[in-house]
Amino acid sequence: VQKTIDRIIFLRICEDRGIEPYGRLLALRNGERVYPRLCELFQRADERYNSGLFHFRSEKDRERDVDELSLALAMDDKVLKDIFGNLYYPESPYEFSVLSADILGQVYERFLGKVIRLTAGHQAKVEEKPEVRKAGGVYYTPDFITKEIVRQAIGAQIEAKTPKQVAKLRFCDMACGSGSFLIAAFQFLIDWHRDYYVKDSPEKHSKILYRSGDDWRLATDEKKRILLNNIYGADIDSQAVEVTKLSLLLKVLEGESQESLTKQFELFHERALPDLGRNIQCGNSLIGAEAYQHQQLSLLPEEDRYRINLFDWAQAFPQVFGQGGFDAIIGNPPYIRIQTMKEWAPVEVELYKDLYRSAGAGNYDIYVVFVEKALGLLNKTGRLGFILPHKFFNAKYGEALRGLVAEGKHLAKVIHFGDQQVFAGATTYTCLMFLDKAGTAACRFTKVDDLDAWRIDGKGAEGDIPADKITAAEWNFVVGKGAKVQDAFDKWPVKLGDIAERMAQGIRTSANEVYVLDLVRENGDVITAHSKILDRDVEIERKATMLFLQGREIKPYRVLPSGKVVIMPYTIQSGRAILIPENEIQKQFPLLHEYLSENKEYLAARENNRMRGTNWYAYVYPKNIDVMRHPKILVPDIADRASFALDEGGDYAFTSGYGITLRSDVRESPKYVLALLNSTPLDTYLKSISTAM
User: Fold this and answer.
1) In what order do the strands lie in the sheet with 500-505?
2) How far is residue 586's CA from residue 584's CA, in Å, rounded to a whole number?
């Protein structure tokens, strides 16, 4: 299906560019046998273009990936006639001659997020892929970002070189998607070569340079040479690989005409396009030959092995790894939380843990593994340029990757966007990160507070961070007027962590609609509260509940009443939270038992029926319950200033925030600590090291 669509779109764009006779596809609507006649056009295109897009017979050096299926298919005339009608005026509003490869990429990004599933009744259902659904959709990397990454990563590698030297460089996107980064890289190289030849002498390079109006252009043959020499890519999705190849082929044909291609064929007996089968390949960028030593792989069902799609980089690109690896790796790796991947790719998740140092910590994001792998694929002078969430700068799960980068002094440049939003329609907190394999003495750090201004002039607050200050600890880089204050605080001998016994996250009941109640009134040992799930008032024993806070009720020096209580079916023994057995709940708290029993089916069905059994009324994630019963300093997870409050009696359970219990030797002076935490200087410091939203 996709190859047919790709071929049709390719030929339609060629028509509007004057490379193919206009209206050929539209003419197929006249008469019957539409698909066989379309296949004749495809076969003629094979003779003319030589690309893997049209590859129906085995040739010398082109034995692989021959399409033996398409020409033997049968297809309904009506389907194709409808498609062709919608590709021409008046039904189509598009001028295909100016439809750029990156616009096409944006369209295809949506397509790549879908999968066709056949139902038991043999119907085709188009659905979002699980990773796309979990991520909230597919988001195309903006053009200004791809260009900046290419300029910083590839531009740095070709500076002060000659075309002969540049011909030996290899640039890659290891999760290429629709090919936006590789298109930008290819265009950058085309422009660089053109400018070099023009400056050197247009007459001297007349075979590879020609005039088009007021502009100089590279001959198709030279563009093909650059593409095959310099551009490489991989993606686990075979559809993405095909889209990337299509986009790059269309890029080669930009500015060409039927006359120029015919002339080239007559002069050189060469077809117009390269076969990109060796440059852009399909496979799992993260799992290669080293995974074969894991016994479980050979025992997996064929469907799982197909999905994992092992990929050996050295075998796929021997010409690259014979020279030690890539000179630059660019891109926008996937952002997928590992806990969501466990649902559809549990085997891969286990393999990452074994194969990558950065995959050792809890609920990390897959992009950290891509950074580690990319570093390993670079040659000794290679450079990496990625757009990434900057959460790993501060998150616990980023510690291993930070350590890896710091040890090799790899961090060369960071452009930090703070709370500025780069992706249209998605809330993501990103940065551009450039790593040098050889190491560097300092990192050039740019903080962008105004994205539009940065796009115009590339300016932001800038400064150099010495490599010896970059460690596995959190990266809180501050440049500009706040840098001296930050530096002074960083040198302060006593940290909050030194005097805190614990810093604990709030509870997650996993069913607030059952456990959290709106307090109506207190009647001694019994409270009356409103249950949302039952939509009525219920009575519960007071001792079986705690006052409940959400982060928004925690303010500087005070706690606002929330009017809510939370059910706590736990007791604290030796500092640990122990679930009270059901028979004990029935004996001590009969009203609570009656209420929970009314919701038994609902609670037991949580997490795909995981809670069925004797502990059906427990929290799914019973963490930090003991902290709720202790005196503690409270802080919300989101606030517009330092907002620390004191729970002196251990009266409050909370969510969407943190509880700080102090060490025994400072436990007598919590108000002194509280005053420091809420003070203006520490509020300033907190803002400098936090993520703005």
Assistant:
1) 500-505, 657-662, 632-636, 645-647
2) 5
Which DSSP string corresponds to 516-534? EEEEEEEETTEEEEEETTT
Question: What pLDDT shows up at residue 369?
Answer: 97
Residue whose C-alpha is closest to residue 251's, from 77, 487, 422, 13: 13
Tell me the β-bridge partners of 643.
none
State the angle between helix axes of 399-407 and 367-377 in degrees (0 to 180), rounded to the nearest 10.
Answer: 20
The encoded tokens of residue 399 equal 């510690």
Residues in the chain: 693
42 and 20 in contact (C-beta within 8 Å)? no
Residue 286 to residue 284: CA distance in whole angstroms: 5
Dihedral sign (CA 489, 494, 499, 503): positive
The type of residue at 225 is R
Cα(477)–Cα(433) distance, rounded to whole angstroms? 13
Query: What is the rounded distance in angstroms from the CA atom of residue 243 to the CA atom of residue 6?
Result: 8
Which stretch of DSSP H or E encloses residue 14? helix 2-16
- The residue type of 650 is G
Would you call 463 helix, strand, or coil by DSSP?
Answer: strand
Query: Per-residue DSSP letters for 166-203?
Result: HTT--EEETT-TTSHHHHHHHHHHHHHHHHHHHHH-TT
Note the pLDDT of residue 362. Answer: 76
**Six-digit token string for 438:** 């050889």
pLDDT at position 15, please? 92
Residues 6+ apart with CB under 8 A from 64: 277
99 close to 13: Cβ distance less than 8 angstroms: yes
The percent of the chain in helix, strand and coil, each rounded to the nearest 5, is: 45, 20, 35
In 2-133, at which residue ranges do the beta strands (DSSP E only) sit?
Answer: 114-118, 124-128
Q: How far apart are CA 510 and CA 515, in angstroms?
A: 9
CB 219 within 8 A of CB 207: yes
- Look up residue 473 and give its amino acid: A
Q: Which residues of the chain have pLDDT under 50?
A: 267-269
